Amino acid sequence: MQQARKQVVHRWSQLFIPTLREAPTDAEVASHKLLLRGGYIRQLGAGIYSYLPLGQRAINKIIAIVREEMDGIGQEFLLPTIHPKEVWEASGRWTVMGDNMFRLKDRKGAELCLGMTHEEVMTDIARNELRSYKQLPQIWYQIQTKFRDEPRPKSGLLRVRQFIMKDAYSFDIDEAGLDASYIKHDAVYRRIFDRCGLEYVAVEADSGSMGGSQSQEFMVYTEAGEDLIASSASGYAANLEKAVSVLSPVEDLAPTGDGLPELVHTPGKGAIADICQFLGMLPSQDIKCVAFMGTVAAPTADTPLRPVVAFLRGDHQVNETKLCAIAGVAELRPMLPAELELHIGGPAGFLGPVGIAEVMTQGSLNGLNSGKELAKLKGVSRETTSEGLKTIVIMDLGLQGRSNLVAGANKLDYHFRNVTPSRDFTVTATADIRNVLEGELDPIGNQPLRLGKAVEIGHIFKLGRKYTQSMGATVLNKDGKEVTPIMGSYGIGIERILTAAIETSAAKFASNPESKQEGYALPSAIAPFEVVVTITNIKEADLLAAGESIANDLAAAGFDVLLDDRDERAGVKFKDAEMIGIPYRINIGKKLSEGKVELVDRLLNQTHDVALADIVSTLQRTI
Amino acid sequence: MQQARKQVVHRWSQLFIPTLREAPTDAEVASHKLLLRGGYIRQLGAGIYSYLPLGQRAINKIIAIVREEMDGIGQEFLLPTIHPKEVWEASGRWTVMGDNMFRLKDRKGAELCLGMTHEEVMTDIARNELRSYKQLPQIWYQIQTKFRDEPRPKSGLLRVRQFIMKDAYSFDIDEAGLDASYIKHDAVYRRIFDRCGLEYVAVEADSGSMGGSQSQEFMVYTEAGEDLIASSASGYAANLEKAVSVLSPVEDLAPTGDGLPELVHTPGKGAIADICQFLGMLPSQDIKCVAFMGTVAAPTADTPLRPVVAFLRGDHQVNETKLCAIAGVAELRPMLPAELELHIGGPAGFLGPVGIAEVMTQGSLNGLNSGKELAKLKGVSRETTSEGLKTIVIMDLGLQGRSNLVAGANKLDYHFRNVTPSRDFTVTATADIRNVLEGELDPIGNQPLRLGKAVEIGHIFKLGRKYTQSMGATVLNKDGKEVTPIMGSYGIGIERILTAAIETSAAKFASNPESKQEGYALPSAIAPFEVVVTITNIKEADLLAAGESIANDLAAAGFDVLLDDRDERAGVKFKDAEMIGIPYRINIGKKLSEGKVELVDRLLNQTHDVALADIVSTLQRTI
Question: Residues in domain Aminoacyl-transfer RNA synthetases class-II family profile (chains A, B) (predicted)?
Answer without folding.
Answer: 65-523
